[in-house]
């Protein structure tokens, strides 16, 4: 896992080199060579400390040892000469293995500046070879900076995920092992360590010399990237593989190794196909152009008859409806798949937030069972933010125990039974159920039956309690007023029916195409986050056509109360069920009507539904009333014509305290335009940020500063700072002379309509109209005596307490609604 210290050191090394080497590829080459050079010197030192001799920097190469080139008596130009000569000659050094010589082949020092080299090597010297992953961490972070990792869909596999997969697959000492997309050989090293640990006796590895030789020869790796191959070779060598079997090989296009089969195959293959496409040969069972499909097919096809595998896959493999994806899933289910483990999105941060799963293959076990085990890992022991800090919550140990238990139940020919904790993560599904609609979808949640813990009422499929669930009418729509309004996705964007966000149509439609009171509209084609958004149609007298891309649920009012239904539809539990059926594309997701009809919801008797609605409605009325207070509050005070009028520049300054977040670490409050509410200046959204995630220059602000949005669409976004932090450069930071003017008061004045009109008079710019300080500072504002200002601010603060109390009221009763809905669901 990329640690902050490694990242900082690499960033510093690149900053030093960029003046001499602007090309990122050249920077990568120089940093990689220097790291290997340093690690070889570290290994020599370790050997000497243990009573042995240096192996690499000996004989005529002794003068190139790290300590020698950094001798204080060596001048800057002598350092350039020694180091430059060393990397030129190192590929001829007979003391280092061939693979190390290959690393230094054609290497040279492309600049001759002593100060740059000295600073650069000083940073490299801070790395220590405490374990070989440092090399992989550093190199792969470099690739992420270059963008080549993301473009290729290659994301570094966290060590704990690799170890989890290896423990599940459980390779043995006599088995052959392959990673066909090996990267830095993480899976191979983990498997090697796992086998050694399995063969320990009294704390010592209990393998004969012949067994150790055979074991080392059992490992193979392919990668298309020569850089990755070189890193794998080094990594394997550092783990006592004298002649690693790592090959530069195009797994998908080459046929040279097609007839080589393995007992174990482990991989995290590239998730994306290159922009130029790929040209696979015709020997794959699934003919496809997607690299993730072909890699999984390759792995499944190249397992020996009793082979086992573990492969990390993107969500497309799990649920995409393309023919190649469906055919691949069908083959896997019929031949080798026995476990699908879903990982949380964010496992691959900071490289990518992509959502992934692990497919576990076992040809022997798959023949003996008619079921697939689904395991959902919600927490992997690390936070899912960019820095991936360690946390207490970790489902991986329990997931491992569940999979072992499942394997044993298959071997014993028994049905697996889960305890309460296991059932929260796992369930089994019959293969015939997965195959029944021909999609072979591997999203575990869609097959999970709702467990009724309270036993109060039945859970019934939506198709049984709604008379009609269908898409809308495809009519010609216009912005100009026509015969009828037409609903669209935007009509229900805020969770209610907003007629202002409808269109018009003059088309002739049937009576059945109109919305009726009690109908519920649900978004079934939308961005993934907004999928399942729902609104109840009631209290509207005008005729509104049910437009396309929204599903209409027409309730059977003898079975379900529409107001009860909409509370259920808006619950987190229901939305989670809807999204479990989602089929994702690039910019949107969709759910089939047939899948929605199968969702089961709790269905009490109508009388009980009405009681539940009455309780929830009473909570909602309190929430709505409190929201009215919060949303409509605006501090007001009467301006006395006797007050002095001054220009803003006489009472405040435009502070331009620029901060460059590059190279900094830790958390900070960051406020963008999107975080400031219009009219009332409230903050919303997440303002806590990791500094290294912020990519450009920002402005520093302090408590009691006033933040004013400069862009025209964001006028009236004014925030009185009650915290310290940084903000967008599209925001002015104003510091008031507090002995003259109280910033809290002037943050309110700047939200007044008359003030905004004065600002608009100075807006400039065609593409991004904005207010400049030259105009802003000349705006005239009232300046009451300081005592009167204090009285006004005291009044505002008193009113603010009432607003804060209403916000707390909203939270309390929103929680009450959530708790009641959870009770209805049986949680």
SSE layout and pairing:
Layout: H1 4-17, H2 24-49, H3 66-69, H4 76-89, H5 98-103, H6 114-124, H7 133-146, H8 148-152, H9 159-169, E1 177-179, H10 186-198, E2 200-201, E3 204-205, H11 209-217, E4 219-223, H12 226-238, E5 246-248, E6 262-267, H13 291-301, E7 303-314, H14 315-319, H15 323-335, E8 337-342, E9 356-362, H16 363-368, E10 371-376, E11 380-382, E12 390-394, H17 396-412, H18 420-425, E13 426-430, H19 431-435, E14 458-461, H20 462-465, E15 466-470, E16 484-486, E17 503-505, E18 520-523, E19 525-526, E20 534-536, E21 544-545, E22 550-555, H21 562-569, H22 572-579, E23 583-584, E24 589-590, H23 593-597, E25 600-603, H24 606-632, E26 644-647, E27 652-655, E28 658-659, E29 667-671, E30 688-690, E31 698-701, E32 706-709, E33 718-720, E34 725-727, E35 731-736, H25 743-749, H26 753-760, E36 763-764, E37 770-771, H27 773-776, E38 780-783, H28 786-825
Parallel strand pairs: 1-4, 1-6, 4-5, 6-7, 8-10, 16-21, 29-34
Antiparallel strand pairs: 2-3, 7-9, 8-9, 10-13, 11-12, 14-25, 15-22, 16-17, 18-20, 18-22, 19-24, 23-24, 26-38, 27-35, 28-31, 29-30, 31-34, 32-33, 32-35, 36-37
Helix pairs in contact: 1-2, 1-6, 2-7, 4-6, 9-10, 13-15, 24-28
